[in-house]
Amino acid sequence: MQQNPFISLRGIGKRYGTVEVLRGVDLEIVAGSCIGLVGENGAGKSTLLGIVSGKIPQTAGTIMLAGEERNFRSPREARAAGIEIIPQELAYIPHLSVAENLLLANWPRRRWWVSQRAMVRAGTAALDRLGLSIDVRRKMTELSLAERQLVEIAKALLGDARLLILDEPTASLHARETEFLMGKLHELKASGVSLIYVSHHLDETFEISDEIAVLRNGGLEDLSAREATTIDRTVSLMLGQDHAFGVTKDRPMIEESGRPIRLTGWNTSTQPVLVDCDIELRHGEVLGVFGLVGSGAESIARGLGGHQRDITGSVTEESNTFRVPRSPRAARAMGIAYVPAERKTDGLALNQSVAENLTVMVLGRYSGFGSWLRRRAQLSQAKVSVQNSAVRCQSVLQEVGELSGGNQQKILLASRLLAEPSILVLHEPTRGVDIGSRNQIHSQLGEYARKGGAVLLVTSDVQEAIDATDRLLVMRDGRVIDELAGARKTKNLALSIAAGSHE
After folding, report:
1. CATH 3.40.50.300 fits 5-239, yes or no
2. Using an 8 Å Cβ cutoff, are 338 and 307 in contact?
3. Whole-prediction pTM value?
4. Is 234 exposed, middle or buried (0-12, 13-18, 19+ CB in 10 A)?
5. 481, 278 Cβ separation under 8 angstroms
6. 446 to each of 68, 239, 251, 317, 415, how far by Cα in Å?
7. What would the pLDDT profile of 21-39 be if each residue is shown by its tens digit?
8. Cβ proximity of 468 and 445 under 8 Å
9. Which of 90, 200, 290, 297 measures 20 to 30 Å from 223, CA to CA?
């Protein structure tokens, strides 16, 4: 006998003026089941999640919760009804402790004060439910990205969620933490908690979901039981065209004499540590650096970008030797362009226009007399970059904060490429990006390398590490453990080396 749905969405739609961003979406979720919601950036996923979680009011359709029609006027009302969302951009107060962050959203009723001891006790109990051993007295700023993600999930469970919405929950987790989280999500399903799971990692989506819902251009393109569909079919439905996963081919290299760049004797005593790291990067290739969170790979990216001042060592190109850049300005002077992992906090000015963000690294090109800016030339260049990078926006005057994550990432990369750097360093360049945008970004990196650029791609996404690189260095405990290329460059081997299970 079929169970009654815990939540039903009937004909859900959303308009902004004359623009229809969501139309006619019908979904039902029974207790203890999971719907995997997939689609390209801009397909309508975020809008639908916003409606279900009370952040955005729908302009069409109804929401039925346990058989009763509901219209959530705020996220507070949705939480009171047992609906919790873990957003892609985590919502926490950085300088408060873990316990304080956990309790703020779940403050005891009719209590205006709670002792630190009580907060620590309640916070520890919340983390115990997930099996986490994090000291709840630590400040959120002291935690890794992975730990912050898990604390946010614990916060939602503390509120007795009956429907948990997870938006890119594993974007900052390494393989072991992802496996751990998946186990906990299966336990939650078994206890009757319903899930909406949104991830660009389709293998994860298929693992946890009972049904796969595909959104495209604001509409529900397909809804299938997991057993009745495949990843290839799902990708084709997302992109609106036939799609097949091809074998990654090594890109043609320019002459081997093309100016190698050597990182020599890189060390740091702060976490994550580096221990006598030596890396050779060649012009004309995409070199990948892969490691689990805490392996030291992230320090290589940040160090080259001038964002980690405590690294000792040198950078040598031809006969010129430099110390590790101590600032972003020093990195740029060395011909290094850096694409940071956190685009919204470190890479983009969200309240500025597409044109301003695209040209921020090359503003000198558009300087006129005095302090005047040659605005027409700036806008013209921005339009060319938008077209070349396949950015979807209303115009180059639109604020970047209004765009989807994939389009924001394309703009961030395009702004660095406009500077025509000698070395392009990317840290997690496709985190939270749909498969279409991901493929476009990887293609751009290959094209840049073929033209003679040197690309260093640092990622904790093993599939990206395999797909987008010519050579792959695997790091563990602050050291480069192995180099993979050709037939040895496989997902299983990279993971086993990074995890320390391969001899």
Report:
1. yes
2. yes
3. 0.66
4. buried
5. no
6. 53, 22, 7, 21, 17
7. 899 999 999 999 999 999 8
8. yes
9. 90
Residue 446 pLDDT: 93
Instruction: State which residues of the chain have pLDDT below 50.
Output: 1, 242-251, 253-257
Q: Which residues contact 425 (CB under 8 A, 6 or more apart)?
A: 301, 304, 305, 336, 337, 338, 339, 456, 458
Whole-number pLDDT of residue 246 = 39
Q: Residue 244: what pLDDT?
A: 41
Span between the terminal Cα atoms of the chain, in Å: 52
- The reported pLDDT for the residue numbered 257 is 39
Nearest to residue 171, comparing CAs of 101, 226, 90? 90
pLDDT for 375: 85
114 Rama class: left (phi>0) / alpha (psi -120 to 50) / beta: beta
Tokens of 165: 């919405």
Q: Where are the domains of the chain?
A: 5-239, 259-335+422-503, 348-420
Q: Please tell me if the domain spanning 5-239 has the same topology as the one spanning 259-335+422-503.
A: yes
| Distance between CA atoms of residues 189 and 361, nearest Å | 48
The 10s digit of each residue's pLDDT in 145-192 is: 667 878 888 887 776 788 999 988 876 676 677 788 888 889 889 989
Amino acid at 385: S
352 contacts 400 by C-beta, under 8 angstroms: yes
CA distance 12 to 220: 10
Fold category of 259-335+422-503 in CATH: Rossmann fold (3.40.50)
